[in-house]
């Protein structure tokens, strides 16, 4: 099987799943199911989205609507993010993930997602998490 065929099959499977996921789309129109896959690959080394679980980074369940640097159980925030006057919305999360240190100089969040589609999907996933 060629790589192109494999990708074609994967795309067809993704489309089949997209109909059901459409209602759960975030404000930027991303796909939360794809966002979960990216989240597992690129975020869970440090972040958890399981209720109450803290790791090397703040828990991201309920992050949409939360003020930056305000997870009450995470005690290792940088002064920079605590002082940032930002509330996380799909739009501010998208901007943050495109360049965390550009938005909040001094933040310890090291991961950048340069691909806008990937960012929209991750933001849709985060927005889909109930507190
Ligand atoms: C290598 C560890 C690491 C990885 C991987 C990582 N982060 Fe972070 N992230 C952090 C740390 C540490 C902070 C706290 C930043 C601070 O205190 O300045 C943070 C903060 C954040 C915040 C702000 C949370 C708040 O409570 O204000 C968001 C949102 C975030 N990260 C999203 C992500 C996403 C989405 C991914 C995957 C694409 C990701 N992070 C991957 C370490 C990481």
Structure write-up:
The chain has one domain (24-128): Cytochrome c-like domain (Cytochrome Bc1 Complex, Chain D, domain 2, Orthogonal Bundle), CATH 1.10.760.10. Helices cover 46% and strands 0% of the residues. The chain contains 6 helices and no strands. Helix 2 (32-42) crosses helix 6 (116-128) and helix 4 (90-97) crosses helix 6 (116-128). The N and C termini lie far apart (43 Å). The structure holds heme C (HEC).
- Overall mean pLDDT stands at 86
C-alpha Rg (nearest Å)? 16 Å
Q: CATH homologous superfamily, by name?
A: Cytochrome c-like domain
CATH architecture: Orthogonal Bundle
What is the helix/strand order? Answer: HHHHHH
Number of strands: 0
Helix content: 40-55%
Structural class by secondary-structure content = mainly alpha
* CATH fold label: Cytochrome Bc1 Complex, Chain D, domain 2
Whole-number tally of structural domains: 1
Q: What hetero molecules are in the model?
A: heme C
Strand content: under 5%
Distance between the termini: 43 Å
Which CATH class?
Mainly Alpha
Low-confidence blocks of residues: 11-26
Total number of helices: 6
What's the shape? globular
Biggest sheet layout: none
